[in-house]
Amino acid sequence: MHDYYHLLGIPRSASPAVVKLAxxxxxxxxxxxxxxxxxxxxxxxxxxxxxxxxTLSVAAKRGPYDAKLADFESARPAEAxxxxxxxxxxxxxxxxxxxxxxxxxxxxxxxxxVRLEEERVAMxxxxxxxxxxxxxxxxxxxxxxxxxxxxxxxxxGEALRMQRERAEYERWKRTQEYQSRYxxxxxxxxxxxxxxxxxxxxxxxxxxxxxxxxxxQVEVERQKRYLHQQEQEEERVRAERHYRAQREAQEKEYxxxxxxxxxQLQQQR
Length: 269
What we know:
Helices cover 89% and strands 0% of the residues. The protein is mainly alpha-helical and 269 residues long. Mean pLDDT is 81; it is low at 78-103.
């Protein structure tokens, strides 16, 4: 059974993020041309690394794997078979060689792990720096947006204030114009009424004068008619007197002529 933790060079308490960082570091190491391994070994190790990533990154797979790994490690010493005496030096030599190789591998993996940890810390710092810059940028944008909103609100308020003042001024101006027109209208009405009153007074005076003139003329005509009637009456009286005088004279002459005729007749007798 493969120990994926040992393969990736990470502790068993490593988080999925650390697992992923270790996997990426190991993959970069495999792709390095200086890595001393055959293509088959690289392919096998790459396959194991991918299996380790899939197993340790998914909690549903990592739990059963940790249990199987613990069972495997606890059962491994009891299952070791007995070896003959001649194999002990070989085993010791193999163990020493494996220990040296393991030490080198562990050392290399520890260095890789340290490098991966440094890269992770650097990446976290870079991510934190980017988040900080993004937060600062967001704060600057929010501040700029708030300032723009405040400026826009101030401009709208100023525009509304100017609009209200303009409306009040226009209303005051219309009121003044209305009062002025009303005053002019009242004055014109008063002047018109005064002119009409004056005209009516002049017309009344003219009518009164015309009436007096007509009355005087009528009186003069009446007096003329009266005087004419008086003259006619006097003329009639004079004519009547003259007629009576003529008649009396004629009667007197007729009586004289009668008397003269009678005397002649008497003389002739």
